[in-house]
Amino acid sequence: MLSLDSLFSRQPAAMLGLDVSSSSVKLVELGQDRAGRLVLENCAIVPLERGWITDGNIEKFDEVADAVRRLIKKSGTKTRNVAMALPPSAVITKKIVLPGGMSDQELELQVETEASQYIPFPLDEVSLDFCIVGPTANASGDVEVLIAASRREKVQDIQGLAEASGLKPVIVDVESYASRLATSRIIANLPNKGVDSIVALFEVGAMTTSMQVIRNDEVLYDRDQAFGGAQLTQMIIRQYGFSQEEAESKKRTGELPDDYKTVILQPFIDSLVQEVARAMQFFFTSTTHNKVDMVMLAGGSASLPGLTAAVTQQTGFACVVVNPFEGMEISDNIRINKMEREAPSYLTSCGLALRRFLQ
After folding, report:
1. Domain residue extents for the chain
2. Which of 29, 143, 239, 278 is deepest in the core (most CB within 10 A)?
3. Which whole-number Å values give the CA distances from 283 to 158, 221, 318, in the listed order?
4. How far is 266 from 264, CA to CA, in rounded Å?
5. Which of 223, 57, 219 is closest to 146 using CA atoms?
6. Residue 260 to residue 309: CA distance in whole angstroms
7. Cβ distance 205 to 48 under 8 Å?
8. Are 125 and 95 in contact (CB under 8 A)?
9. What single Pfam family name could you report for this chain, choosing any that match (predicted)?
C-alpha cells in the first residue's frame, strides 16, 4: 500500500496544492472564512527551463527542487503539507464491483487480489490505493470501487521532490482528477447546477493539449494531443531571434513587435482551434454524442485574445476560459490583475488544494 497517507486521503489541516508540469511549478493555498466560503490565500508560478521535466519524468532534480523552494518563498506561505499529482499516463485506474458490507481489512485484501489482474507489474513494485465510489447502479448491495496504482518509483520521485523542497507530501492524486475537481465548481454554475451538462474541458499545456469530456463528474471521453503553448514560443524565437527565456517572458507580458498579432499569434490560434475541433470530432465519432453544452479552456494559452470566440465560431458551441478561483474570496496579499491573467494555469493546483476540504 502507499507509503503516503492515501491517493484519496482527506486532510483537514492547512495544505498546499503543488502542480509540477513540464514548463512551470504552480502553487495554490486555499482557506475558508467563517461563513465557509473558500478563500484564495496564496498562489504563485515559477517557470522551468525546457528539458528539466520530460514526459512527466524529472530529469533535473536539483534544479526543479530549487524552483519549488523559490516558488514557496515567492508565495509567502508558511504551510508545509502538500498535495501533488502524477500524470494520468503514470497511473492505472480501474473500477471494480465488490460485495458491500466488507470490513476495511477484507476490502483491502479483495482489492489487492483484483488489482493483480489489471496491473502489469508485481504488486510489491506498485503503490496501490482505492476508494469506494458508491453503490452499484443495480442497487444489489454491491459497491463500486475505484482502484488506482502507480509504479512506486514514480510516487517516490515526487515525494522526494517535495521533501527536498522542505514540504511534507500527504496526498498523491492524478492530475486529471484534480483538474476535474476544480472544474466541477465552475460546472455547478451552469443552468440546472450543471446536472447532465456535457462539458468538453481542454487544458492547453506547454507540450500537450489534453481533453476530458465530463458529465455529472464522469469522464465520457479523454484524449491527449501533441500541441501546446511551447509551439507559440518557438514561433516567436524563429521570427524575432529572442532567446528561450526572452520569448517566454515577452509572451507573458505582451511586449512584442507590432506585427506579432498578425504574423505569429493569429496563425497559432488558428492551429489551436483546429486541434480543438479535431478532438471534438473524434469524441463525436467515438461515442453516441453529437454535441456538448460548453467548451472550457484552461492552461497557459487559454487566455489568448480571440481564442474563445474562434472556438465558438469553428465548433458552434459556447466557449469560456476557466477561472478556478471564480466565486472565491481573495486574500489581500494577492495581486488581483496578475492572478486573473494567470488563473487558467492554476486549474490542477487549485484542484489539489481543494482536496483539503473533501470529507
Report:
1. 90-152, 191-323
2. 29
3. 32, 7, 17
4. 6
5. 219
6. 19
7. no
8. no
9. PilM_2
| Pairing between β-strand 53-54 and β-strand 142-151 as defined by DSSP bridges | unpaired
Task: Answer yes or no: is pLDDT of 326 > 90.
Answer: yes
Output DSSP code: residue 17.
E
User: Residue 139 has what pLDDT?
Assistant: 65
From residue 353, alpha-carbon distances to 13, 57, 117, 350 in Å are 11, 22, 33, 5
> CATH says 90-152 is which class?
alpha beta
Classify residue 4 as left (phi > 0), alpha (psi -120 to 50) or beta: beta
CATH number of 191-323: 3.30.420.40
Give residue 15's identity as a one-letter amino acid code: M
Question: Are the C-beta atoms of 221 and 176 separated by less than 8 Å?
Answer: no
Q: CA 58 to CA 198: how far, in whole Å?
A: 35
Residue 17: closest CA among 91, 68, 81, 73:
81
What global pTM score does this model have? 0.90
| DSSP secondary structure code for residue 288 in this structure | S
**Are the CB atoms for 111 and 130 separated by under 8 Å?**
yes
